[in-house]
Amino acid sequence: MIRLKNLVAKYTTVRGQVAAVDGVHLEVPDGIILGVAGESGCGKTTLMKVIYGDIGFPLSLASGSVEYGFCTERGEPVTTTNIRDYWFKRISYIPQSSMSALNPVIRINRQFVDFRRNSKREADILDRVRQYVQELGLPAEAIDAYPHQLSGGMRQRIMVAMATFFHPDIILADEPTTALDVVVQKGILLLLMNLQEKMKNTIFLVSHDMGVHYQITHRMLIMYAAKAVEYGDTNAVFERPLHPYTRLLIESLPTIGDTQTRQGVAGRPPSLWSDLRGCRFADRCPFAREICRMEEPQLREYCAGHMAACHFVDRFM
Amino acid sequence: MRTVLKTEKLHKVYTLGSLFRRIKINALDDVNLEVVSDQPVIVSLVGESGSGKTTLAKVVLRLVEPSAGSAMVCDHLVAGKGTKPTKREFLTTVQPIFQNPFEAFSSYRTVDSYLERTAIYVNQLSRREAIDAISQALASVGLKYADVKGKYPNQFSGGELQRVSVARALLPHPKIIIADEPVSMIDASLRMNVINLFLALKRDFGTSFLYITHDLATAYYISDYIAVMYRGCIVEFGQARAVLSEPQHPYTKLLLDSIPSTRWKWERKIAESDIETKEYRFTGCKFHNRCPLAQDICRQKRPQVVRLSDGRDVYCHLVQ
Questions:
Q1: Nearest beta carbon to residue A252 from set B157, B159, B192
Q2: Residue A61's Cα: distance from chain center in Å?
């Protein structure tokens, strides 16, 4: 179980501090793929950075902590302060742009060896890497190439190989397929699904594509303007979304075979700098009433494991 | 009847590598398209990256000179041999919208200065008339001139800025707008607002669109015609709803199967792609190495166009 305890993460800027993640409090069961959705600027990537423990100026963790559910050798629980010691061993990261994540001027095998620079058995490791990338559907020669010689999909597979090589307990994938085509995207996502089933670890998958979430995630977290607004099983979220934002997000998608007129969500999210009172979605919400502008709704559990932050959830129950 | 878009034997070859080790890439390989209509139409061009869809858009926008063949847009010849329209004629017929509005507008210039330049130089309006025309164009995309005036790109959201670039493209009252991936940088919740705007412009102003995208769902939603491209070739072209509801070419089927739909879950199998540069040079069907139905003829011979009863073109040996 991974526990996110009341996380508040702030960026320091010349205008002062702004909270990009504001009071996210969740429990994530082990061995699932958790999808994180929301529009740009809602704090998805910041949440990933906090979980990864990559907290440095201008980002700071104002309050809260993450419990990862495993302990150090001395038996102390691992939290945000010491998670760095476990990077790529127990927690790893698949970045969005594989082109900028791989070093363009050295061969991929050197970048693999970099993980374990102190190890003397380099050839041995390379053999294992070669075997492993083949398991992931890449030609073995791919690791002798420079990044620019591979296609986008192959590079992203290399990133997946690096992130999963040590069978980590937690993998954070921040929009791993956004820059890829649908056919390649499907390949990468199926690969992640298969690896997750084999290794039984937890994957946090950030994506703004609701279709991707429906296809591969088990549970979903919807974020809006730095807040968690809905959290539940993916099937339940798609079948019966409890928060109006989730509902509008799902309904706005066109599908093939359906010629019905679709409307986007009108308006734009509030500036995190402004005086945020009440529900942050109230200005765009077709159902907003007086109480929504005055009082902030809390994230509450409405059915087993399905939580939402809205004053009028009953309307959708 | 007007020719909205017509290409004949359009080729474009890019050469990569050094003088001695050249690799030729056929970004466009014998592209023949024809859309004739009295009504304004939305033509979608779909395919994965490297399929040549942006190159085709660039040829149509006269940004790239094709290696061979000709292209016509709204009865004007834009590439190939013959008399071409003057620059002003061209710009009042064809206007572009680009993928990333934050890159399309310089962050050091106010957004309205772009609108003003277009109005003054392309429409040849005086400064005062220009402001009226700009207000009108902005109103038709749902923005107010007062909200745009004097602002820099970073003061807008992606969706708003894309609307401004649509407004700019509308100023010369073009007959067709070439929109290259206009919504891929915009958040899902705002995407449909821009897509619906295209439909409204088609209805109210009679503007046609060439909508280039890799998102088949939005293509299905707005387009009248659709052309599916793969490695520089058209593989299937016809009425959008017919093509996407009953795809005939195996590549169109593969694309449709790969969409992360919210209606049904994926089957867990996938056809892997080969090295791209190799695929551009195939003499047979370019899809044969990934095609589940490939036969000997597919490896040897480029498929000829097959016209089906519903008027669609399919480039496949196995379609009768």
A1: B192
A2: 18
Give the residue extent of every domain in chain B. 2-315
Q: How many pairs of residues across A and B have Cβ atoms under 8 Å apart?
A: 123
The CATH H-level (homologous superfamily) assignment of domain B2-315 is P-loop containing nucleotide triphosphate hydrolases (3.40.50.300)
Interval A135-179: pLDDT, tens: 888 888 888 889 888 878 888 889 999 899 889 999 999 988 877
Nearest chain A Cα distance for residue B105, angstroms: 20
SS3 B273: coil
pTM exceeds 0.80, yes or no: yes
Out of B192, B216, B260, whose CB is closest to A256? B216
Q: What is the pLDDT of residue A117?
A: 59
10 Å CB burial of residue B126 (0-12, 13-18, 19+) is exposed
Sign of the CA dihedral running A223, A229, A233, A238: negative
pLDDT of residue B277: 65
The answer to whether the CB atoms of A183 and B258 lie below 8 A apart is: yes
Output the pLDDT for position A119.
Answer: 61
How many other CB atoms are found less than 10 A from the CB of residue A79? Answer: 14
Q: Which residue has the tokens 């199967």?
A: B257
pLDDT digits (tens, 9 = 90+) for A21-35: 999 999 999 999 999
Using DSSP's 3-state secondary structure scheme, residue A231 falls into: strand
B245 touches chain A (CB under 8 A): yes
What is the C-alpha separation between B201 and B293, in angstroms, rounded?
42
Percent of chain A, pLDDT > 90?
41
Q: Pairing state of beta strands B208-213 and B176-180?
A: parallel
